[in-house]
Amino acid sequence: xxxxxxxxxxxxxxxxxxxxxxxxxxxxxxxxxxxxxxxxxxxxxxxxxxxxxxxxxxxxxxxxxxxxxxxxxxxxxxxxxxxxxxxxxxxxxxxxxxxxxxxxxxxxxxxxxxxxxxxxxxxxxxxxxxxxxxxxxxxxxxxxxxxxxxxxxxxxxxxxxxxxxxxxxxxxxxxxxxxxxxxxxxxxxxxxxxxxxxxxxxxxxxx
Length: 207
Ligand code: HEC
Hints:
Layout: H1 3-33, H2 43-56, H3 59-62, H4 72-85, H5 87-90, H6 99-103, H7 114-117, H8 121-130, H9 145-159, H10 166-173, H11 180-193
Helix pairs in contact: 1-2, 4-9, 8-9
The structure holds heme C (HEC).
Heme C is lined by residues 85-86, 88-90, 104, 106, 108-109, 111, 115-116, 124, 127-128, 132, 135-138, 140, 154, 158.
């Protein structure tokens, strides 16, 4: 048997064993704990899922180099994009400490930690483009050149999350999407500050 065939066989065996392990452990948990999203995936589930994700990413994708050069302009663009599309789950600082991020199963991870930073640029690119099946992580890529470029800028941002300044985080806050109720409340406050209306704004808490 050629070495390529042997490697393919070995990969198939590892994937099959991983699947079997995941199915058995998931069934045991299902019976014991039900399907609640409140629990954390076990260490076994997490490591099998990550190992399978790695195996399912073609080597060529994994080894891709970031074609966008790292500069402040690229990072600023990525911060705006991240604040608008990703922060709802991941938080502006990428640590995943948002109400939505913490209530997903699996939770949105702290992307400043080694698990995420240990992924290659190509893997980060593939994850952002294709999403992660069976999790809250959506697919963002459409395959267009502009989309790919903005995804590569996001990869730079993820690599540089530790260097975000408090001022930049403040800026990102103002770029987070607003609910209609928040928007209306801000509009009332703005008008009140400009003296257009004598009515004091009341901040009704939103769920
Ligand atoms: C609706 C919630 C949600 C949104 C919005 C979202 N993500 Fe995620 N993301 C997740 C979850 C949950 C995971 C963890 C999945 C897992 O553990 O397999 C994740 C995982 C990731 C990972 C892999 C991290 C790792 O260590 O495995 C990257 C990279 C990522 N997201 C980037 C982004 C970017 C960039 C955006 C915006 C363009 C985004 N995400 C938007 C929920 C979200």
